[in-house]
TrEMBL record:
SUPFAM superfamilies hit by this protein: Prokaryotic lipoproteins and lipoprotein localization factors
Keywords: Lipoprotein, Signal
Domain of life of the source: Bacteria
Listed name of the protein: Outer membrane lipoprotein-sorting protein
Length: 215
């Protein structure tokens, strides 16, 4: 489980609108839904998600762990098991408590962190997008949107399940070309909270016994 999480969490997450590729196909209804959710999240001072993170193979999840995600503007903090990732708007800090290691790096737009909302930005130039109707997800009559990579990137497809009435993500599934699957199912959502001013700050003094590597 730890290795699966590390592979997914260690990438970077860059927020921003990008122009559409010529060969890209985006269903108009799906685009409207995703753009509405993006606008909703961007209108908030900050957002918080509590979720379950599942991994497995052949489309079947066999292990789950709880996770939390905070975001404010382009800054975020994600924690799953003993792995934490912080983006302070400039650098990404990957913190592994089990191995007592910290890796610091600048964002790399060629990779994408698996988070509750990363595909709201990366779909804009990396995926073909189709609307697949409605599906009941945890009691929510959710809109089902499928993303298929334009170019080979190790992902076979991504499923997004959206509560369009609330303009919120309910669940997302990432299916790898190697048959691995990773799932985030959102359990709780809060917005515009009063956060610790240091929520998105990496304090080296708290990790004196860690191996810290800056790439």
């Amino acid at each position: 489980m730890k290795n699966s999480i590390s592979k997914i969490i260690v990438g970077s997450f860059v927020i921003g609108a990008v122009g559409f590729a010529d060969a890209q196909k985006i269903d108009a209804k799906a685009k409207k839904i995703l753009d509405d959710i993006t606008a909703n999240y961007n209108s908030k001072k900050n957002s918080y998600f509590k979720f379950s993170f599942g991994t497995g193979v052949n489309g079947q999840v066999n292990k789950t762990e709880p996770g939390i995600y905070y975001s404010a503007g382009d800054k975020y903090k994600l924690k799953i098991m003993d792995t934490e990732q912080i983006f302070d708007g400039n650098k990404i800090y990957n913190i592994n408590a089990d191995d007592m290691e910290v890796t610091i790096a600048k964002p790399n737009g060629s990779s994408s962190m698996f988070s509750p909302i990363n595909y709201l930005s990366t779909y804009r130039n990396d995926y073909n997008v189709t609307y697949n109707g409605k599906k009941n997800v945890n009691g929510v009559n959710a809109d089902f949107i499928k993303l298929t990579p334009i170019k080979s990137n190790g992902i076979q497809y991504v499923y997004l399940f959206v509560d369009s009435a609330k303009k919120q993500m309910v669940k997302l599934e990432q299916h790898g070309s190697n048959k691995d699957v990773a799932v985030i199912a959102i359990k709780e959502y809060k917005e515009n909270q009063t956060l610790d001013p240091n929520m998105f700050v990496f304090d080296k003094n708290k990790f004196k016994n860690y191996i810290i590597t800056e790439l």
